[in-house]
Amino acid sequence: MSVLLPLDQEETIPNMRAVRRPGTGRKSPAAKGVLPQVPPRIALPQVPPREGITPRTDPDQTILRPVQGRHTDGISIADIPTEQLPAIVLQEETKKYQKKGWVGLVVRTIVTVLLFALLLRSMSWSTLVPTLMHVSHTYLLIGLAAGVLCIFFSAYGWHSVVIAENIKADLARLIDLYLVGIGFSHFLPTSMGGDAIKAFYVGRDSDNMAGAASAALMSRITSFVGMLLIALPGIAIFHKYFTKQIVIEFLLLSLLLIGAIVSAIFAVALLPRLSSRFLKGARIKNPMFMKFLAVGNALNGSIRKPRSMLAATLFGMLFWVASFLNYYGYAIALGIHVPLPFYVIAIPFVSIIASLPVSINGFGVRESAFVYLFSTIHVRTPIATLLALLMDAQVLLFGLIGGCIYFAMNKKTN
Length: 414
Hints:
The protein has one domain. Helix 5 packs across helix 13, helix 7 crosses helix 10 and helix 12 packs antiparallel against helix 13. By secondary structure, the protein is mainly α.
């Protein structure tokens, strides 16, 4: 740093310099009385910009530019302030993902409409009307009560996983959000799924979005595990109710589901190590990857809590038992006299197929699978279709209740 003196001072004392002691702001005795008490003009060094630095393009990260601070009496301030600049948003990639999402939605909509058209075309209205006229209201209410139990058991299982994420959530709040999730899944399929809306509200309440998303995914996984723990022994015991082809198809679907669950668990367990070892630079700083990594770390932590996972799995098993009774009650109400063990395999079979991303929320696929399974035990197509539509009506009823809860929640916040 150079010190510039006034011209008259430079002429009178050309060889004199202002010497300062290191670490102090005082002049040495040699300089006392030499310089007048005129503050020197300080020439700040001009630092040239560094070459080869490209701006970051992470949407979630801000770019910090150093701002040149004041210099006081030749000593620079250590805390250099920073200025926040807007980050560059990758709009092209966002539009590309949105375009793919719309294409997938159109394809699933076409599949759903075609499947429903085939089902309605195969129905006999002369058989359907008398069946509806002779519905047993007692068994209809029993089936509905079992459906309500499904909501409670699923909410309890979700609550167990939420606790594993160290998130405090009221059970009544989770039941409300579960119904809200049903409403979003069936009335707004293009916007946000049920699991996503549940994770969003729990994450907003707890300020832990990654843990909330992890809990929503883990509750779905533990529910499927509970289903397999019932269905696989069931197929070995009750295989006489099914044809050999149905048994083989169910075992293949179960293997597919087990492979997906095991792959997800291994990916979650190995993701932190793989990301730190093989992914570097811009890839690991990608905001979508960072969110995925955060959810993976949360899943990894919840898996290491076997007590909570066991409780969630047990509630998942209770959920499927209530589902069997739910379908069984509606079937008896419609005059379908099929043994209860049949539903122990039929309902998981249909659920695995409906979970495939083929149609919107499984509509059309679920009903077609019902007709296929019940045709193997000589149940007429209109009656089997009516049972599937009755279950759809129950879900839509729960979705309407969830929609009312959602609007009530927004009214309170406003």
